[in-house]
Amino acid sequence: MFDSPLSSSAYEILAVAWDADDETLRRAYRLRLRQTHPDTGGDAAQFVLVQRAWELVGDPAARAAYDRGHGFGQTPSFAPEAPAWRPPARPADTRPRARSLGHPGGWRRERYLALMREWAGRGVELADPYDPALVRSAPRELRRLLADALAEEATARIVADLGMGYTVWHDLAADPRDPEAKVDHVVLGPSGLYAVLSEDFGAPVRVRRGELVGDAVAGAPIAGLVACTRAVARTARVRFSGALVVLPDDDVEAPIAELGKVRGLPVAVVSRSALSTVLRRGMTGAREIGGNELFDVRTRLQQTVRFV
Question: Domain end: 44, 70, 96, which one?
Fold first, then answer.
């Protein structure tokens, strides 16, 4: 909830300065509880955020650990002492993995690094472009690039664990002239062929009239995903079973929300922890793929896809 490069800090949720003393912090917490309590007209999602923020900084030991991990109490040092927002180290796994092609989050990470060096270091090499204080102070556009790259990498790890019966392509170009026009992941398996958008808006979102809405949502993500999916389908001459939007667990109202068809394509919004379930069992109204068709679809994609 507070680990995204885009999310508000615990102090911002409590509407208090990061260096406030304990009593000021406690008063701010009580005030925010009253302001956000649903029984007094407050927002339930904000009420939960306030309680979670207090869990992180209300206790001196917890607060000290939170400050170290999020770069409070220091200026951007560009030093790699406390890197943040990186994929956690994973133990060796000898199980058969899904076949993976392309570099998940690669384009956005490269873009983030180039723009971060330009913004913070005037083109010089930074010791750590992921330094917590540096990331927190960066413009939202930069934090957005990093958040999206991390979201794509998280999805890639989940899909890889589906096993050898699946093939996944990452960062597929829908329009070679526009690197932003891409499909984050295309997943092929026994349950069908799915286009997947990995997102992290840094705040809860909801669905209204077949589209994602929320204070942090810009544009029309679902419409964009469907348009890019149709472009890839035309190029490869394949039929997609459905399209999925994957969001952090804390940012969705339900783990799986099937929206029906958008321009003829079944669409669902799923939490990150529910993604593997959907990809294994499929979606309502989605076409399953098996036998020779599975081989044919894989071959067509292999021969035609381009990566951004």
Answer: 70
